[in-house]
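Researcher: Please translate sequence to structure tokens.
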Amino acid sequence: MADPDPAPSGTNREGEAHEATIKTWRINRWMIAVAVFAALCTAVGLIIATPDPPAEGVAQGDSGVNSGGTGNSPSQCGVVGAGASCQILEQARSHPEQAADADDTGVRAELRARPEANRPPAEPGPWAYAVVDTGALGLFARTTPTIEAARVGNAGNLDIVWADCVATSDFTPQALKETNNVGPKWVKAHWRHLDAGITRGLSERDQPTTAYFYLGFLEPLGHNGDIPAC
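Model: Translation complete:
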């Protein structure tokens, strides 16, 4: 018996096209999988390489940068009649474990035990305050005492800020310890505005620009804290 007639040429073309379509789909699917895998690898790399942003309300980083004001010099106590208070601060600062401690209860107690801590400011301002209870993190300098303020650097723990007055606003930072919560009160101090909140700076009494620091993390130095209202 003779072989049956071969299939029409159109049928062969349809089969070849169908087979080519399947192969193309398989190739495209493989290329898509490779692209997705590459994208995932890139995303993971970016996540690992990008540092976490600082937590809200915490000043961290750049603690070794000396970014003062007009003279770019270390802050000096220079408070008339407060030599002993300055020595207490210097001794605390000389101990690394003390400087990194976020609880300066002992330092506060020593400063408050000095006779000058019970006296009103005896000379024209600005007046000195010591930064306390911030440890290695420091205290933010802010453009205003309101929640919308920008951060313009931070002062180191046990450093001095030179204040003109105390401002009362409608903003109190969150998550404060009872010992640091004084309500919405801020000191207006002499401060050169820096590029970011994480940049460590120094307050200088002759610096013409000012910024605001939360009063709950400041201890009067050489006076009782009874300075004018802003």
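Researcher: Any highlights?
Model: Residues 1-50 form one domain.
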